[in-house]
Amino acid sequence: MSATDARLALIREWLARDLHLAVERLEPASSDASFRRYFRALGADCSYVVMDAPPEREDVRPYLKVARLLESLGAHVPHVHASDIGRGLLLLEDLGNTLYLERLSAGADPRRLYGDALAVLAQIQLRGSAAAAELPPYDSRALGTELALMPEWFLGRHLSLEPSDTQRRVLEDTFALLIREALAQPTVFVHRDYHSRNLLLVGERNPGIVDFQDALRGPVGYDLVSLLKDCYIGWPRARVVGWVAQFRALLAAGGGTAAASETEFLRWFDLIGVQRHVKVLGIFCRLWYRDGKPGYLGDLPRTFDYVRDTCARYAELAAFGRFLEEHVAAALPRANARVAAARGGAAAGP
User: Fold this and answer.
1) Cis amide linkage into residue 207, ω under 30° from 0
2) Alpha carbon of 312 to those of 150, 167, 271, 300, 330: distances in Å?
């Protein structure tokens, strides 16, 4: 019996013997960039989602903690009906399978979807001071570790680019700037992946929110940029700036820290976006080269363009922007084409 089959047998036994649920079938629900898998457990009068997190690879305790915190703030996360921490199994509320990304890609009006997402994010930040205090800090070490993924996996492994000493100093100086700017922002409860693939359209208390187990206490602009400069779908700058102003107004109305001006708040948003997107460039490549998951390579160009755009807007990022334009911009499509060819012409897309 394969490891996968053994886990499925374990799930069926847990549902029937321990939870006494009359589940008729298990269907794959979703997967993510980790070792977690999700199955929809269906019966005549029930529908649940089972998280399968092999304990030797994943610890479900952070998920349970953050789920409790977010639920206490009124966010619609999947309610945990049952858990077996030792075996890495959770029985969760079924929020359906209508991702924001699916609806937006199909042409749904984004105003309602983003209006709901911004309102809930503001609610989490405004109510979440005590909850955020229970989370680890998004400190200089965590920020720096994330930034280091980009030279290793994006530049080195994907682009076969070895920066010169001068170029390495540009990277080091830029990363130090991004860390300083991140630490200068007010700190709030940070989901860390608040975007269209982790938000579901639900009938009550929209949106449903998933994949939050890595939450930290960190910069006020982080989740906002995850949502509005989404690596999986893009929007015109003018619309994004309007949403940023809308969110700032929500924070200000609730007594939150909304910066001294719209310009300062937008700067917070843009600069933490560079930190996030530099990190994501490394993560998407690592998912392919280390984990054998090519589905994120097609999202590299959009992610890279976010970084290029912001570098062109802020003088302190000019040197980094020149490095990207001169050494990276032309290399990225060639690298993606190389991977696609090596995979027999398969598209490198989600």
Assistant:
1) yes
2) 19, 18, 12, 19, 17
Percent of the chain past pLDDT 70, that is, above it, reads 96
- pLDDT tier, 350 (very low <50, low <70, confident <90, very high otherwise): very low
pLDDT beyond 70 at 345: no
Q: What is the DSSP letter of 56?
A: T
Architecture of domain 100-342: Alpha-Beta Complex (3.90)
| From the candidate CATH numbers 3.30.70.100, 3.30.200.20, 2.60.40.420, 3.40.630.30, the one assigned to the domain spanning 24-93 | 3.30.200.20
User: pTM of the entire structure?
Assistant: 0.94
Residue 223: count of CB within 10 angstroms of its CB: 26
Strands in the chain per DSSP E: 23-31, 37-43, 46-52, 80-84, 89-93, 187-190, 199-200, 208-209, 216-219
Find tokens 């929020």 and name the residue: 95
pLDDT digits (tens, 9 = 90+) for 114-162: 999 999 999 999 999 999 999 999 999 999 999 999 999 999 999 999 9
DSSP letter string, 107-139: T--HHHHHHHHHHHHHHHHHH-HHHHHTSPB--
| 100: CB partners within 8 A, 6+ apart | 113, 117, 195, 196, 197, 199, 200, 201, 207
Report the distance separating Cα 170 and Cα 323, nearest Å. Answer: 8
Task: Give ranges for CATH 3.30.200.20 in the chain.
Answer: 24-93
Structure tokens given for 150:
């980009």
